[in-house]
Amino acid sequence: MTEPLHVVVLDRSDALIRGLAKAVAALPDEPDVQVFGKPAEVAAAFERHPVAVLVVGPSELTATGMRRVAKLHAEHPETVVVVAGKVVDLPPPLTLVRAGVAEVIKLPAGAAAIRRALESAIAQWHARHVEVHVVDPLPEPALEAVAEPAEAEPPRAPAVTITVASATGGCGKTFLASNLAYLLAASGKRVAMVDLDLQFGEVVSMLQLKPAHTIVDVDPDEPGSVERCMTRHRGGFDVLAAPLDPIAADSVTPDRVADVLLAVRSRYDFLIIDTPPSLNEVVLSSFDISDHLVVLATLDVPSVNNMRVFLSTLDRLKISTDGLHLVLNKAEKGVGFTGTDVEQLIGRSWDLVLPYDREVSRAVNLGLPVTEAAPSSEVSRRLSGGLPRLVPGVEAPVVAAVRRGFLARLFDRRTHIPQEKAS
Hints:
Elements: E1 6-10, H1 14-25, E2 32-36, H2 39-48, E3 53-56, H3 63-75, E4 80-86, H4 93-98, E5 101-107, H5 111-128, E6 160-165, H6 173-185, E7 191-195, H7 203-206, H8 225-228, E8 231-232, E9 238-240, H9 254-265, E10 270-274, H10 281-289, E11 292-297, H11 301-316, E12 324-331, H12 339-346, E13 352-355, H13 358-366, H14 370-373, H15 378-390, H16 396-400, H17 406-414
């Protein structure tokens, strides 16, 4: 019999305990909940069995209490920390981050709000609870063993592969991946973008595509299958969509994904991989072939804390971080802490900081990368200027190629004047 998930509560608040009881009863797999009023009792519980979620109530939201929580988090980084308290009593954001807090329950809260926080915390625990093992690297494709049609082009060097990832949803992975694809395609290179969020991929909806085929339909051994299953975006890059039906995702195994990625990699100059906010086997298979891993976070406590866990997990899995690049997205002032504060916490510097910009939402509504829809916007300038830091070796002309505006190119198409001949 599988051992139940253990949730430990540090607080004796009747209101919080009643809300937790109702929330836990509504969860599909009811976890075992233990309530303690003293920190020493909680420490003893951690010694008895693994704790999936630690809920810290109002009585522990003091400077001393949060130091105790931070110590527990350092000793048990796999445990997801949740704090519950009135907004006026919550510690500063940096204190929450140092204590490893992943979710905040703002009291008073109903059972539904508490349940959502617990569901998110448990999902994060599952994502963190990755077996520590060294993933065997995928073999490089043997060019002489690939059966190409007689009229095929000579074998090309494998594509430079960039995987875009984050440990938290809503950080802007698809936004960044699509803009990288557009910027690289603007240089005239062959660029493919693959959506590995197999259940709830957003690439198709964000770029307003209507794919005839998806990753489910690719036969890596069949000549021409990769190209046939791609959907062309008006920005000049190809997209391999995730399954349109989430149930169909079950048929796409990690081994199959690895074969598909290698097949795509052998046919393009650049491969951009968009991933879900998790570290499953499918995502790990993309890490194996990536030259660059771009990890995003935003300036909020769950995102920053989950980035710390993400980077720690990469180290535990012995995944090389030689090509690791960190991006801070939607940066704003007045949120309680800054990008510099986060750099000090994680011990690494941001390779790129992108501001919050309304032009991003306008571009999404057009189905376009913001660098195509609004090339002169602040966020587009940051993306263009930062491209060589995320993809070292990219020449300056690739960045300069996006300076021509979307409306001008649209006018060219409508008047049937090829861009290279337009005056």
